[in-house]
Design a protein that fits this description.
One of its GO terms (cellular component) is cytosol. The protein has 336 residues and is an alpha+beta fold. It contains 9 helices and 13 strands. The structure holds 2,5-anhydro-1,6-di-O-phosphono-D-mannitol and magnesium ion. Magnesium ion (MG) is lined by residues 93, 117, 120, 280.
């Protein structure tokens, strides 16, 4: 007899008491993200039909304007989190500034802020390549019942309460952590439920996949160039292989399962790196560390970087522990 897998809804309820701050609020928040992810998934899966159903700027059959998918995903996540009144503020890659929720309502006792990249890698949609959603959750530091402030969002990654991603791939998965390991849930589209498919996910300590946009090679710091050459030449009988999807969530997800490293270093084209600290790097770093992996900017632990602005960029090296440490060795030795 096969045992029925646990659904994400059941998992959230059963594990609620182990959350660091157990009030049910965080459970409701993750439940809302689950719901929005299903709605976005439905839309992402229809992307290939866009020429048939209408393109951005057109009006669809119900008279609604067709939207670009990243705009759509942004709206869905914000709507879901706002309407259910479970957070006090949201910051998104798609919004210049953070959003304050119910700032006039003294009864808004919500403690959490969410930072989100609603559809990361969206340039891949046109060509049927996986994209993802990334989210990061903090407790606010200003008093509850008052409007959120920038400082509630500019917290170090080490203060995260939960983080996760959704990968809209060959199957859709939601992977998240609340600081007690990492669990992955796969969507059964026929039923519309996420099932626990990857309990207690761990990065292999070592790996043989390196993921980096080698088109930027000439622009990379010397330490990174040397590391890439080490992977290609000096590490024996070609034990390394290169895989780069160009969708952070998918590259990270594969590396976590198979063992590997993802790198987006700074260079003259991206003087501070390309990826965003608060809603791309920190959540992935939290998941990586919870899964025995590691994440840094080549020198400093990602989650120890002091945030100074909402859309701050940072160099990002993340994956199997031994591989990240090797890159850090090269950075210390060869630097920029
Ligand atoms: P985006 O937020 O504009 O989608 O950019 C983030 C994406 C990551 O998913 C991906 O790893 C990286 O940018 C790819 O960048 P590049 O095309 O420069 O290699
Ligand atoms: Mg992004």
């Amino acid at each position: 007899m096969t045992t029925q897998k646990q659904t994400l809804g059941e998992f959230i309820i059963e594990n609620q008491s182990s959350f660091r701050y157990s009030s049910g609020e965080l459970s409701r928040l993750i439940n809302s993200i689950r719901l929005a992810a299903k709605v976005v998934n439905h839309e992402v899966n229809k992307a290939g039909l866009v020429d048939i159903l209408g393109t951005a700027g057109d009006t669809n059959i119900q008279g609604e304007d067709q939207q670009k998918l990243d705009v759509y995903a942004n709206e869905k996540f914000i709507q879901t989190l706002t309407k259910r009144n479970i957070v006090c503020g949201i910051a998104s890659e798609e919004e210049d500034s953070f959003i304050t929720i119910n700032s006039q309502d003294e009864n808004n006792q919500n403690k959490y802020v969410v930072l989100i990249d609603p559809l990361d890698g969206s340039s891949n949609i046109d060509v049927n390549v996986s994209v993802g959603t990334i989210f990061s959750i903090y407790r606010r530091i200003t008093p509850v019942g008052t409007p959120v402030q920038l400082e509630d969002f500019l917290q170090k990654g080490s203060e995260q309460v939960a983080a996760g991603y959704v990968v809209y791939g060959t199957s859709t998965m939601l992977v998240y952590t609340t600081g007690y390991g990492v669990n992955g849930f796969t969507l059964n589209p026929a039923i519309g439920s996420f099932y626990l498919s990857h309990p207690n996910m761990k990065f292999p300590e070592d790996g043989n996949i390196y993921s980096v946009n080698e088109g930027n090679y000439l622009d990379f710091p010397l330490g990174i160039k040397k590391y890439i050459k080490y992977c290609q030449e000096e590490a024996g009988e070609r034990p390394y292989t290169s895989r780069y999807i160009g969708s952070l969530v998918s590259d990270f997800h594969r590396n976590m399962i198979k063992g590997g490293i993802y790198m987006y270093p700074k260079g003259s084209r991206n003087p501070n790196g390309k990826l965003r600290l608060l809603y791309e790097c920190n959540p992935m770093a939290f998941i990586a560390e919870q899964a025995n992996g590691k994440s840094s900017d080549g020198y400093t632990r990602t989650m120890d970087v002091e945030p100074t602005e909402l859309h701050q960029r940072v160099s990002f090296v993340c994956g199997s522990k031994n591989m990240v440490e090797k890159v850090e060795e090269f950075m210390r030795e060869f630097g920029e």
